[in-house]
Amino acid sequence: MTNKITIHLAMLAFLVTMPVFASKVSIPTPRKNEPIQPIPLGVEAHTAKVELGKMLFFDPRLSKSGFISCNSCHNLATGGSDNLPTSIGHKWQLGPINSPTVLNARFNLAQFWDGRAKDLKEQAGGPIENPKEMASNHELTDEVLSSISQYVELFRDIYGDDDIDIEEIKDAIAAFEDTLITPNSRFDLWLKGHDEALTAKELEGYQLFKNKGCVGCHNGVAVGGNSFQKLGIVKPYPNDKILGRFNVTGKESDKMVFKVPTLRNIELTAPYFHDARTWDLAEAVKLMGEYELGQDISDEEADKIVAFLKTLTGEQPRIVYPVLPPSTAATPKPDRS
Amino acid sequence: MTNKITIHLAMLAFLVTMPVFASKVSIPTPRKNEPIQPIPLGVEAHTAKVELGKMLFFDPRLSKSGFISCNSCHNLATGGSDNLPTSIGHKWQLGPINSPTVLNARFNLAQFWDGRAKDLKEQAGGPIENPKEMASNHELTDEVLSSISQYVELFRDIYGDDDIDIEEIKDAIAAFEDTLITPNSRFDLWLKGHDEALTAKELEGYQLFKNKGCVGCHNGVAVGGNSFQKLGIVKPYPNDKILGRFNVTGKESDKMVFKVPTLRNIELTAPYFHDARTWDLAEAVKLMGEYELGQDISDEEADKIVAFLKTLTGEQPRIVYPVLPPSTAATPKPDRS
């Protein structure tokens, strides 16, 4: 009898307090009608391939000199980019164009500023054999990696053959890069319905970003990366030396057309534009207004838009720095010349 | 009564089987009289300072170009060294001497090949301002870091002032480097009494290493690093362009005298010698016999000694790659020229 009463009292207490709890744990309502979507929390991945790709991404032996790795110009400590106007390559040659971030690159419709690589795998081979970048060649990288027994084993376990080739190298690097996403930015939390994730100023910035028209090109999961657009559409861009998509298609109308860069983690990846025209994000916003939108964006507006843009910085990938297998007597020696 | 009998039987069973268990869990007897001692499993560390030091170690903004970090030449993916004859520095200048490993450097009696820095802290300032290496200067690095609010906070929390200076920068880098030890090599397990950790061939190699006299200089925790010795003591070394310790002391007798390098993780840190004379560890062993010991070491003997040397590869430090705070408008821009 005593037990029964206790149970009844407990049930009563539960029924009385439940609405209180329910109001406290109310589920946020995602904002589904925004032009920007949150980055997924994770991606499907082939773990062993990703680990191999990480090793390759950090391995300087993919360069002729043995000094430059993918990470040299797409540094995962600094937003997946190198924070230089243009990258430093073999023999300190300066590249022609600002290095785009590798973070969230999986969401791009194509790779490179001019989109000349259809995906990350196709992209990965480019810098390795570019004489101004890593200055190696695909035969040499195959030979280097094939001389290192631990690599041979890892490739065999994944690709099922004894022959390391550039297609496999690119595939593994791309598999690693595919995992380099930055979820849980404050803006994404807001998109998921957490109202408190943004300040009033940041929200105003977002409204300006939409109202001024920035969002016309910078939208989707990556806030960009999903279309090609002409730089200087309302006013000719002062630097027309780099022709962009024209180099791929040969079409006159593709001159000065570039892949719209992602704005995710934009505060980490100065300087801005393909020609690194400015280090200042507010100035970048105003220049975009001038050349792309025909809008005069005031200092105060730019300040608010920048406040919004900084909410796009997400959790950076947690990378355990790889330990690379040593070279052997058969490994071609690095060549610094 | 039944209970009591059960207990007595259980005790009896325990007493009978105890010696069997005891023989199975016998504690290995450490080998205390060997000239090499195991690397400790851990070191005392100021966690926040180590974390800051790690960030600085990987931060390319400590170089003039914004491209070169401590890790560029002391790469923790490749044995704490760069696997190049000499390092590549600012504007692709080639350094004068092979980059020594940062792993286990805490056990060295002094730093650099010529021992010109008394400890890791003193060493850390050198490459930053060396015009052939990172090509920055200590005023510039102070200015760069002071412009980055997250760094200012981290330094304030640790050093208690608002002023970032080079002494603090060096101190933090050294604190990180102090933790870069590689315990639990197979040789250390053997030293701790685990007989099965080495093969017969490796043990023979170790006996040769002792009997030939290698151990006379390569001893202690780091298997080297604890004395200065003349290179070419029994036969003049063919390359006498780098004078070593003479540059520090000015003493004639210190010409061609160098800090004995550690042999820990030696399989990871080719090429060998201060002038990178060989990439082949067996050849390095034979050259040492020739110039230091006046001993003709046969191919077979060198092969065994190399087998022993490879047991000195320990667990590499597990590094979570740092995420660096972004530069600000006040941060001096990188200068690639």
Write a concise keyword list for the protein shown above:
homodimer; 12 helices; Cytochrome Bc1 Complex, Chain D, domain 2; 337 residues; two-stranded antiparallel ribbon; mainly alpha
Radius of gyration of chain A: 24 Å
General form of chain A: globular
Topology pattern of chain A, helix = H, strand = E = HHHHHHHHHEHEHH
Give the total of domains of chain A.
2
**Largest interface (C-beta under 8 Å):** A-B, 40 and 40 residues
What's the oligomerization state? homodimer
CATH architecture of the largest domain in chain A: Orthogonal Bundle
Q: Can you tell me the CATH topology of the largest domain in chain A? A: Cytochrome Bc1 Complex, Chain D, domain 2
Determine and state the CATH class of the largest domain in chain A: Mainly Alpha
- Residues in helix, % of chain A: 25-40%
Helix and strand composition category of chain A: mainly alpha
For the biggest β-sheet of chain A, the strand order reads: 1-2
Instruction: List low-confidence stretches of chain A.
Output: none
Sheet-strand content of chain A, in percent, reads under 5%
Average pLDDT of chain A: 94
Q: What is the CATH homologous superfamily assignment of the largest domain in chain A? A: Cytochrome c-like domain
> How many strands, what sense, and barrel or not for the largest sheet of chain A?
2 strands, antiparallel
